[in-house]
Amino acid sequence: MLETNICQYYPHWFRRILDFQALCHTESQELRFLAAAMEQIHKNLFVQTMDEDTCAQWETILRIVRTPGEDLDFRRLRVLNRLSLRPPFTMIFLRERLDMIFGPGNYVVEMDYPSFTLCIEASVNDGRYFSEVSALLGIVKPCHIVYVSRPRIDGAMLLSERTSRVEITYNYIQGAWALGEKPFVSVLEQEVLKMETTPSIQPAFLSDTAAFAAQDPAAARVNGSIMIDRLTRTVSGNIGSVIYTVSRDQAKEITLVELLGRDGVVLASSQVYLPVIEETVSLRHSFQVKEGV
């Protein structure tokens, strides 16, 4: 740690002189600037802590064209990703890169070997990350494999069960009937036999609920005006999904996606940002049904 208090090194009789006090203040301030510059030089040795000027130099070296408005954290991540691209390239390597870009658990990789197709689904609402993945695969992906980007919108539904012993009271007897004054039957909970926090719902019920959630949407609406009624529904265990395709002719970028019921009511709405780079882009809405409170 660089010492910046210069006055302590002067004899006591000099410290009382105003000229020396002003000189000490100026020298101390310059030393603080020097200490900050030395610390930043040390930070610039690492991609995760480098400043904007150092990041810009690396972007020039790596021939990265920066888009206005990109924050420094994303630029650091992109530089780190490009610097770490060294063969051999495997699926394990690709998953490590996607963990760094999207975060663990925020994506799904599917490889269709007979069709030579690599599909990556990610639940990220920033199109810059998809662009970075496209640049990554342009380096590591074999030329005969087709890359398909599929954004994913995740949702979750919680189910819980409560079992109680109740007392049923009939409020009316024959000959004494005041219609509407009281309910015909009153149910009063006497004792809780099983709390909601105790697991009891079976996987089959969760799967059936997920299938219902996937069947309920009747159409999708993109950017508030583009209607899509061709929906593909899938169910895998306790996850129900709705998939549809948007072409580049319909939208150059996607900022809002909605699922509509049969009466036109909005069932789900998500703010996203996705530039439509390919001819078409497929979107997946996933509904995970699990037990919880």
Oligomer description: single chain
State the end-to-end distance.
51 Å
In terms of per-residue confidence, which ranges show pLDDT below 50 for 5 or more consecutive residues?
Answer: none
Mean pLDDT: 84
Helix vs. strand class: alpha+beta
Number of helices: 7
Indicate the radius of gyration in whole angstroms: 31 Å
Order of helices and strands: HHHHHEEHEEEHEEEEEEE
Task: Give the topology.
Elements: H1 12-15, H2 18-43, H3 52-61, H4 72-83, H5 91-101, E1 107-112, E2 117-122, H6 127-140, E3 146-159, E4 163-170, E5 185-194, H7 203-215, E6 219-222, E7 226-228, E8 232-236, E9 239-247, E10 253-260, E11 266-275, E12 280-291
Helix pairs in contact: 3-4
Q: Can you give a write-up of this model?
A:
The protein is α+β, with helices and mostly antiparallel strands. It folds into four domains: 17-65, no CATH class; 66-151, no CATH class; 155-159 and 200-291, no CATH class; 163-194, no CATH class. Helix content is 31%, strand content 32%. It has seven helices and twelve strands. The chain has helices spanning 12-15, 18-43, 52-61, 72-83, 91-101, 127-140, 203-215; strands at residues 107-112, 117-122, 146-159, 163-170, 185-194, 219-222, 226-228, 232-236, 239-247, 253-260, 266-275, 280-291. The protein has a six-stranded mixed β-sheet with strand order 1-2-3-12-9-8. It has a four-stranded antiparallel β-sheet with strand order 7-6-10-11. Helix 3 packs parallel to helix 4. The longest helix is centred in the N-terminal third of the chain and has 26 residues, at 18-43. 14% of the residues are buried. The model has no long low-confidence stretch (mean pLDDT 84).
